[in-house]
Amino acid sequence: MAAIERCIQTLLVEKEYRLKTFRRLKESLEQLMEDLEHPNKSRFEVNVLSQMEELFTLSQVNLHQLNRLVDGYEQKVKENKQECLELQEKIQNLYSRLEIDPSEHLYVFGHTPTVLVKLHEEWQRLDDLKRQNLSRLINQQRRQLEAMWEQYYVGEDDIQALQPYFSDDYTEESLEAHDKQEEKERSRVKQELPRVERKLDDLIATWEKQQGRPFLMEGKRMNDNIVDQWHHYQQQKEQEKEKNHHVRAKQLEIESRMGTRNQSLLQKRKLPRNETMKSSKPRRIGEDSSCSSFATMHSPVRERRRVLHEFNHNIGKSCK
């Protein structure tokens, strides 16, 4: 008799455990199906989600099947979340590149299939707009590269190595090549700048010791020029930070005004399909304009490059 009672007690404990497991998995399944907007339910899912728990047999086979079902839906939701994040990043980059006003941005929240569809549509719209304005975007990248080349005294050989820069072929491949070159230049400057500064300090100290006078550039000591450039760089970073802050504040204002804080989805306001950015005149090699080739540009910075080159040459001779 005691053995039977122990067996009954064991079965009751097992039943309670299985019931708790079932309720936990059922709650997860309900949320997952909502996230996936999954209206079609199999007979098994109907039995699980029924308000009548007795319809579901608490067998190990059924619980195992339910656990696998939940795992599968969890993986799908995870994939949707990742896809949403990737699309949102691409869309934000295109908003910035195409200079789309925040009032025309798409504001959606969540990771449901409906949100994914809207994000895909918005990305496709912006990608089409990007292709329609390749010449302008490429010329913008060229101006940025020219400014970096001047600022960091990039040699002519390195400039000549970027073939797309001298091409009249305005394609997505050309734009991608310019993007990669801009990132390459930034990375190289970040890595090389400390070493170059130390070397320059040593060369200047040697020159000043030999000549018995300070080395001046545009009437100022070279070290003072370097400090001024660092201050200018920090100011640019602060201005960019402030600009981003204003853009985000404007976005939040629009969201608040349109009630997006209390909605899971906001109807987007699209630009007309045939609306494009104001395209600029394509730059031609040798053209006398603000976008002209670096090889034809004449500026005070370029003159400083010549002075620095002569200084390095003289230092090399004096140190032999």
UniProtKB/TrEMBL annotation:
Keywords: Coiled coil. GO terms for molecular function: microtubule binding. Residues 172-191, 271-293 are annotated as: Disordered. InterPro entries: MAP65_Ase1_PRC1. One of its GO terms (biological process) is mitotic spindle midzone assembly. The keyword Phosphoprotein does not apply. Transmembrane segments: none annotated. Residues 175-191 have a biased composition (Basic and acidic residues). Pfam families: MAP65_ASE1. GO terms for cellular component: cytoplasm; mitotic spindle midzone. This is Protein regulator of cytokinesis 1. It comes from Petrolisthes cinctipes.
